[in-house]
Design a protein that fits this description.
By secondary structure, the chain is α+β, with helices and mostly antiparallel strands. The chain has helices at 60-72, 113-122, 137-149, 154-161, 165-170, and strands at 16-29, 32-44, 49-57, 76-77, 89-93, 96-102, 109-110, 127-133. Helix content is 29%, strand content 35%.
């Protein structure tokens, strides 16, 4: 499903932002050390729309606001079915690997740090998620987003195959 990205307009959306990580970086110059901050932020309406952004600035609040602005430009639609995902999905970005598995109602979001922020922002309430490899929050957010973008609901599958919805489930 690569290449079929579902972009979303930002107008008329109530987006909530979540700060995933802040990193203090140092640049050594002739005059000494210069400190700046990079912040990775996830925004979503908790109803199937999510985006991530990276902001860099000399102050934390400015970096966060830049990250939110960048995230609002990267919004995508994700299929959410009854508070969970339609099927299992794996994805990889850099050294980070993620595995997402749908869960029954009442399970909750079983995911760690950066993955949890993305999944809660998209509006998933019941999911089992595992991250393997790198725990770098930047790569985890990107791998989680890649996994969510590869998800397809039954209507999309039926449309791509050119068959009815009953034919998808009954063979």
């Amino acid at each position: 499903m690569t290449g079929d990205i579902r972009k979303v307009k930002t107008s008329d959306l109530e987006l909530k932002d979540r700060l995933v990580a802040i990193n203090r970086v140092t640049k050594v110059t002739k005059g000494g050390r210069t400190f700046s901050f990079s912040a990775i932020v996830v925004v979503g309406n908790e109803d199937g729309i999510v985006g991530w952004g990276l902001g860099k600035a000399s102050e934390v609040t400015t970096a966060i606001s830049k990250g939110v602005d960048a995230a609002k430009k990267n919004l995508v639609k994700v299929p959410v079915h009854n508070g969970t995902i339609p099927h299992e999905q794996e994805a990889k970005f850099g050294g980070a690997r993620v595995f997402l598995k749908p869960a029954t109602s009442g399970t909750g979001v079983k995911a760690g740090g950066a993955m949890r922020s993305v999944l809660e922002s998209v509006g998933i309430h019941n999911i089992l998620a595992k991250s393997k490899g790198s725990s770098n929050p930047h790569n985890l957010v990107k791998a989680t987003m890649a996994a969510l973008l590869e998800l397809r609901d039954a209507h999309t599958v039926a449309e791509h195959r050119g068959v009815t919805l009953d034919k998808v489930f009954n063979g």
